[in-house]
Write a structure and sequence with these properties.
Strand 1 and strand 2 form a beta hairpin. It is elongated and about 85 Å long. With 131 residues, the chain is α+β, with helices and mostly antiparallel strands.
Amino acid sequence: MRTYQFELRKLFFVLSLTLFFIIPQDIFSQGPPPWAPAHGYRAKTKHIYFPDQNFYYDVEKRVYLHLENGKWSVSVTVPSIFANINLGTARKVELEISGHTPYQYNEEHIVKYKKPKKQKVKKQKKENKKK
């Protein structure tokens, strides 16, 4: 009886060990959000900046960096003030900044990636001048 139990435990251990090495380790990971770029060791994008909303997504850490009461906060989910925004269609800029504090360049990003002026207004003015 004891040898049978020993053999059964041995078989269970071998099967467990085999499954551990056969099943991919990342099978249960969520991966990046659908709007984020591909990731891996070749990926250059470290952060995604949403200029219209002025917040960042850290691709490596998978966290959102946003201003809250004048201070930068970190969140694992989309901050509630941006919950109604479709991040798939929102304007975004891929940044290659090393480190995990892209907001240290926030003033530069605000100026560099400001919202483009609407072209429709200029077209309407030109049409009015022709008439």
